[in-house]
Structures are given as structure tokens and as C-alpha cells.
Amino acid sequence: MKEIPEEVRRKVEELREKIEYHNYRYYVLADPVISDEEYDRLMKELIELEKLYPELVTPDSPTQRIGDMILNEFKSVQHSEPMLSLDNTYDEDQIREFDDRVKRSLETKGVEYVAELKIDGVSVALRYEKGKFVLGLTRGDGTRGEDITENLKRVRSIPLRLRKPLDVEVRGEIYMPVEEFERLNNERIENGEPPFANPRNATAGTIRQLDTRITRERHLDSFIYYVLNPERYGLESQWDALDWLKDMGFKVNPHSKLCINIDEVVGYWKQWTSEKDKLSYWVDGVVVKVNRFQLQKMLGSTAKAPRWAIAFKFPAQRAKTKLLDVTIQVGRTGVLTPVAELEPVQLAGTLVKRASLHNFEYIEDKDIRIGDWVYIEKAGGIIPQVISVDVSERTGEEKKVQIPESCPVCSGKVGKLNPEDVALRCLNPHCPAKLKRALETFVARNALDIKGLGEKIIEKLVDAGLVKDLADIFYLTPFELTQLGPGIGHKTISNLLSEIERAKLTPLHKVITGLGIPMVGEKTARVLAQNMRNIRRISTATVDELTQIPGIGPEVARSIREYFDNEKTKHLIEKLEKAGVKLQEDQEQQNQTLAGMTFVVTGALRNFSRNQIEDIIHSLGGKVTDSVTKNTDYLIVGENPGSKLQKAKNLGVKLITESQFLELAKIEPKSLQQQRLF
Predict the structure, then answer these.
(1) Per the residue annotation, which of 2, 51, 103, 118 is the catalytic one?
(2) Containing structural domain, residue 139
(3) How do residues 64-89 score in pLDDT, each as one tens digit?
(4) pTM for the full model?
(5) How, if at all, do strands 88-89 and 309-313 pair?
(6) Whether residue 277 sits in one domain with residue 375
(7) How many CA atoms lie within 13 A of 380 on its CB side?
(8) Is residue 118 annotated as part of the catalytic site, yes or no?
(9) Distance set, CA 329 to CA 401, 415, 486, 613 (Å)
(10) Rounded Cα distance, 240 and 245, in Å
(11) Tens of pLDDT along 167-225?
(12) What contacts 104, CB < 8 A, 6 or more positions away?
């Protein structure tokens, strides 16, 4: 192990302090003092130093927010003290009764309260030791919670180190901002998945992802509002605690208010009942807390809830209107979504003319008919949806909603991908409505891997009519690309055309993956390429011939046959061949170093994604399986390995690290970078 110079240690610590300070300015205060470029430079410098000296990597380093891992499970951990729920009310009279109870119990005529917006998210507990974040828990059953530390590290507003080296536990709310909730639900609808009913569900589903990348990419946020054992830090009131939390580096909601009596609490509640829709996050009420900690202790708690706090919920907002018609939208993945065309009605400050009906099973379950009077709400406060029907208004003239028998865009066949699927889809792989998503699949990293051809440029290419099928990418000219508008300069165009030219030599299995053949994923694509060797042979193979290939069943075989029987597919293959795209496997692979060897991978790899290392193994003649058996030659072990590790030990399977794998494969990291596998 090489000795670490003292100046390197100091530099690493200095960079971490600077980065955390700028995280605080950006994510907590929303007041950055450096540019994104300067921030990226600091982060890049720290990453490089930690690569050179991996012994310096610590759990609280800002770089640990970036690296992703696959977790095996969420362990159950005892809470320091129970996380109680709150009693709640929607009624002004009841909030005044709460105030009367508090004053009677304390034998006083007046009590100060702190009114805080009730965030529609998920409660968490955060523990720090010597100022470093060591544990994050869900509420769970109130007594025990799940350890979601790694996912909470991906929430940028949660500090990995405090501004003082204290041992402390705090509690607060993790939430999903409005913009992210809308983006995620739109994406789910396009993919034929049911949208999240509210931001709380979306947040809960996100912080319990075993793949930390998903959590990081969903951009959760936080507000912290509670300190355990506040007297240890000289705090006497909740109002003081909120200031103290902000000083320590936590994000604290800026709209809390110190109220001298219950009238001010009610005024605050009325104000935010009408103004809550202006916020960039969802709130569903006001949390009312007795301000002084000494008085909180005197009031105590029941088995379920504190007597010194209550949730004053906002009234639900809904409207009643007439369903005039149902139209069909075709999403980027071919999902057919029914949309309610409504008699315009005011709801939560906006005029609503259209609302979601989710899917045709939802329409059937709710017995929604054209001509019905329906109730609508905004899911999560933003997306209008039909929630029920007023059957008492029916006249007998209402019409049942007809399930479409063909795609309204291309007239292609519609159906479900599997019996469990609730979404009806256009099954035509060449439907124009699916082109943008099909292109994203085609150029993705696990397919042709065309750098620079992202979602925004694809959208511009399709909208401008420059790309009408997958093959058109290979016929783009510099002149055409200059027509895409600002941001597409000569250097960008040159790089993009170079990438497109390089993509013509993509291995066959990746091209097949990119074509998006229904029911054909990466593994099936690889099997097809290995057994058939070229696209022409695949395109003419019968169902019987295809089912002779190990791992390809009758349904998949029929799907492949149907895809290649499509006239547009035949035209597409001809265009790809004419453009010079390699549509056959090389006769012999030059390097067969791993031939005959079977590998399994466990844990989070530092330098590879799971797909990347599998590509390397396959390219060198090896085999990858999901389960450890007596036939497994090597288990590649990453960080936080799962149960496969113990099974491999029991079976006597050889364990190797990433670096040992590279030695075994006789390949240099530099060559991998050149092959774009790193």
C-alpha cells in the first residue's frame, strides 16, 4: 500500500468541506455562490484523488452520493425512541377543542404554538456521530424502521456531515417535488405502468429501491423539523430548534410560523388552504405544536400520538362535471390511455377540461359512461382524474366506453403484453406514436450506444421530420443537423456524426436489442445472434427453427416471426444494410480467453455496471448465469455482496474481485476504455 502524502489528506478534506458547503448553499439555502462548472471542477478533483488513494474514501464523502449500488435488503433497526403518529382534524372547532385541552392540562390561559406545513412525504430518522451521517431509518411500525441509509445519501439536501461534530438524531420528511412527480407519473403512464396516486406513495416507493441509482435519479428532497433530546444542545423550544437545525446544515421549511394563540394558528391554516398550490411541493395540512419543550413534556403522549401536537388537515378539493366524451392518447411506448373530455369546471384554481381515466379496466371497475356526471380530483394536487360517478344523475342515455380494436394512430393491432398487464397497447413496432421511444431504445447504451443522441435531440429530429424510422439516423447530413436550432453547433454535429459512423460496427446482439422486437430483451438478443449469426437468417427462420434455440419458447418465437413478417421491418433492414450497418456476427472471435468458464456476479461493482461486465465476459467466450451452482467457475464479488457469496463458499466456488477478473481475462483497463465498456 503506497503512503499517502499529508498534503493529499489535507486537500481531500478541504475539497469535501468546500463541496458540502456549496451543497448547503444550493440545496438548503437555494443561494449558490459558485457556478455549476466550478462545482463540477471541485467534485472532479475529489473523485480523481479518491481514485488514486482509495484508502481515503469515507462514507461521508460527497462522492458517495454519486456512486450507485444494488442493495440486497433493508435491515430492521430499533428506533432510539418511538416515532409516534399524529392525531388529526379537518375542523376548526376541533382545533379549538385541542387548544382548550392543552390549556386545561397545563392550567394556563395562553399557549404559544408553532405552525408548520405538513409535507406530503415519508417520515425518516437521521443519526449522526461526530457530525457524520451514519444511519437513516423509515418510520416503520414506529418502534422499528428499515435502514435506508444508502438511499438517503442520494437526497442532496441531507448533509453527510454537519457543521459541528455532534452526536445527534433528527427527524423530518422526505418528499418528491411537484415537477419530479409529474415527470415520473408521465413516464410511468407512457410505459403502461399505473401512475402513483400521490407524492407520498411515489416517495415511499423511491426510498425503498434496492437500486440506489433509481433513488438518485428521482431527485427527492427533505425538510427536517425535530431534534431528539433537544435540551442536550441548549434548546428550549421548537422555534429555537428550527433555527438550530438550519445552522447545523439541514433544510428547514421557510414557511413555519410562531403563533401566540390558536387564532393565529387558524389564520395560518386558512392562508395556506388557499395558497398551498403555489408551492413547489405538496402539503396536506398544518402541524400544530406546543412551542416550549418543557410544556411538551408536561403534556406527554398517548400510546400512539403526542398530546402536544395535532395535524390540522386541509379539506379535499373536488368538483362535479359532465363527461362529454372519451378520447384515446397513444404514448411513446404504445400504451393507449383513455382521456375524459369534460364540461369545463374550476378545480383548485384552474379550469379543467380533461382528466385521466388511467386505463380501460379502471373505466369498467368504476362503471364510467359517456354522458355521466362525474367527480374529479387532482391526484397529488396536480393531475386531474375522474374518481367516481354520480349514478343518481343517470337518465338512461349514457353510453358505455368502447374498448378500441385498433390503434387510433396507425390502425395496427392492439392488445396486452401479458395477462397481468392492465395497459392496452399498440402492438405495431413501427407505429409513428412510438418512434421517439423506439429511437431512444435503439441508441441506448445497451444497444448502439450513440453518445450525444439523447432525448432532446431525438425529439427535435422527429418533430422536424428528419427521422421517420430507426435507419434514418444513418442518413443524417451536417446540413440537416444544423436545422435543429440553437445548441447544435459544428463541434456537436461533428461528434454526433462520428458516433453514428462508429455505431455501424455495433455487435449484432446489440443491434437486435435496439430494434425493440416485442418480448426480445438483451439475453434473447444475444442467444439469437450467437445461434443465427446474421439478421437475414433470423428474419427468415420459421417458428419451429426458432424454438429449437435454447431459451426461446413458442411465444417469443411467434413474436420474432411476426416482427420480421412486417413489411416496414423488411424495409428497415434493407435501409440499415444499405447504410453499412453490420448485421452479422464475426465468423471467429479473436479472443476466447474465458471460453468454457461460467461466471456469477454479486454486490455493487466499482468500475462496471452489471451489463458491462456481462458484455466483457460474453465477448471473451465466457458465460454468465444468475444463480450460483456447482457448475459455476467464478463468483465476481463487489461491495455489499448478497446470499450468493455464502452459497459460493458452501459449494467451493472460487471468489474473485474486479481486478482479479481483469487479470484472469488478460485485458488492460485502458483497452476497456477504448472499447467503451468502462
Answers:
(1) 118
(2) 88-313
(3) 776 666 666 788 899 999 998 898 88
(4) 0.58
(5) parallel
(6) no
(7) 25
(8) yes
(9) 15, 15, 30, 39
(10) 9
(11) 999 999 999 998 899 888 877 776 667 778 778 888 998 998 888 888 988 999 999 99
(12) none
